[in-house]
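Thought: the user wants the 3D structure for the chain below. I'll pass the sequence to the structure tool as-is, report back what it returns, then summarize two notable features.
Action: structure_tool
Action Input:
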Amino acid sequence: MKDFRKLDVWHKAHQLAVQIYKATESFPAAEIYGLTSQLRRAGVSIPTNLAEGCGRATDADLVRFIVIAMGSASEVEYLILLARELGLITKETGVTLETQIIEIKKMLASLIKTVRAG
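Observation:
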């Protein structure tokens, strides 16, 4: 078992989740069960899966959960693009979130390689 709090990528993913919640506060009420919910769930899924993977017994399990986190990161990347194009977030906020998610995806890819190398 590993401590997820020691992972730099977990800290960045956690901060992204917090920022996603703040960015979606201003979304229209009509989106509460749509884009707001989807973006929040996908954003929270990244650090959650890292935490869960660290709590598993084997490196193979950890890699599986990092891969799931990567999928959620890609989902967030698209949903941010959609929110920008719909005018739900500003270009500036969109660029900031996109930059963070791209960095997180790179870190997740690196972590997968490191854990697989054992």
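Final Answer: Structure generated. Residues 4-117 form a domain with the de novo design (two linked rop proteins) fold (CATH 1.20.1440.60). The chain has four helices and no strands.
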